[in-house]
Amino acid sequence: MALVDIQNLHVKFHVGHDTVYALRGVYLQVERGARTAIVGESGSGKTVTATSMLRLLPPTARITEGRILFQGADLLALSENELRPIRGSQICMVFQNASAALNPLYPVGQQIADVYRQHNGGNKREAWQRAVEVLAATGIPHPEDRARNYPFEYSGGMAQRAMIAMALVCSPQLLIADEPTSGLDVTIQVQVLDLIQEVVEKLDATLMLITHDIGLVSAVCDRVAVMYAGTVMETGSVSQVLGRPANPYTIRLLECFASTSGEKMPFIPGRVPDLREQWQGCSFAERCPRAQDICGREAPAVREVETGHYSACHFS
Ligand SMILES: Nc1ncnc2c1ncn2[C@@H]1O[C@H](COP(=O)(O)OP(=O)(O)O)[C@@H](O)[C@H]1O
Ligand SMILES: [Mg+2]
Q: Cα separation of 174 and 206, whole Å?
């Protein structure tokens, strides 16, 4: 059984008089122990997929269809009370903007200590000690002093370390890292990624790494899912998808990534579909060099192009 099995997930947002169909039938499986990258252009639905798993979507969002099985149980069918022990202790998320995810009103060490006590009990002194230890383990210098600092006294890289320290005290089975290094200096990025990998190894956890930087994918992950306009276009091992991409969208994405260098968001010519509209065919049809009539009429089924390698395209 996959650790995570997302089936036909649909999420929409209500914005004024508009409805934004952000996820349009996402299918994604994550095996226990795998390191899965989710890649795609900005707006493709990566963050919405991850936040749906923890049911932390903004109030304007509705999950209208689908299931998110975690160890076989549907997270969408659980009550808030049933979900609480899973959120934070079995599934932890490191957000894109760690400084904003920390509470500005409390010292960082106290926030980590509080999380520790929620999951492990123990007295305040023990919890504080543990918070200092995990801050030290994430490479924060002078952790005793740093634990007493407030989030605004942390740099972006340090805040990201503090979030990872928080994940460490929870010992989750699944760590979701959403663009954990964007906005950080390149040298700090490398350190934060190393730290995430260390933590995943130490906890024997499963990793979902959300990124638009394809350069990171082969460095960190063994599996990859490519998203576009609210659906998963292609999944497989990193060597399959990056080495032998089957889906025209992935092929274009990789070409564009190769022609821009590294960090920059790849740019694919043509119009990104307006997510307020609904359509019958393939989301990529308008921009796809291989599109035929059928692509505008019928959404492609997912096919297994080789063992463990899947593509949603009429022609791959
Ligand atoms: N708070 C929101 N209000 C309205 N629409 C949203 C909101 N958050 C996300 N969306 C829509 O969902 C789509 C997917 O967003 P997101 O998952 O954040 O993309 P990304 O792949 O960049 O993480 C966006 O293109 C946007 O149209
Ligand atoms: Mg995002």
A: 5
3-state DSSP helix/strand/coil percent for the chain, to nearest 5? 40, 25, 35
Looking at the CA of 43, which ligand is closest? 1
Q: How far is CA 134 from CA 49, 107, 111, 209, 272, in A?
A: 29, 15, 12, 21, 43
Tokens representing 70 are 């975690």
Distances in Å between the Cα of 16 and the Cα atoms of 13, 19, 58 are: 10, 8, 14
Domain boundaries, the chain: 4-102+154-231
Class of domain 4-102+154-231: alpha beta
Element housing 257 (H / E) = helix 248-259
C-alpha of residue 39 to centroid of ligand 2, in Å: 10
Angle at 56 (CA atoms; ends 55, 57), nearest 5 degrees: 95
Tens of each residue's pLDDT in the chain, 316 residues: 999 999 999 999 999 999 999 999 999 999 999 999 999 988 999 999 999 999 999 999 999 999 999 999 999 999 999 998 898 789 999 988 777 789 999 999 999 999 999 888 889 999 999 999 999 989 899 999 999 999 999 998 999 999 999 888 888 999 999 999 888 888 888 888 999 999 999 999 999 999 988 888 999 999 999 999 999 999 999 999 999 999 999 999 998 888 776 555 556 777 789 999 999 999 999 999 999 999 999 999 999 999 999 999 999 8
Q: What is the CA(30)–ligand 1 centre distance, in A?
A: 22
The verdict on the CB of residue 275 being under 6 Å from ligand 1 is yes
Instruction: Give yes or no for a contact between 151 and 103, defined as CB atoms under 8 angstroms apart.
Output: yes
Question: Does any ligand 1 atom lie closer than 6 A to the CB of residue 226?
Answer: no
DSSP 273: P
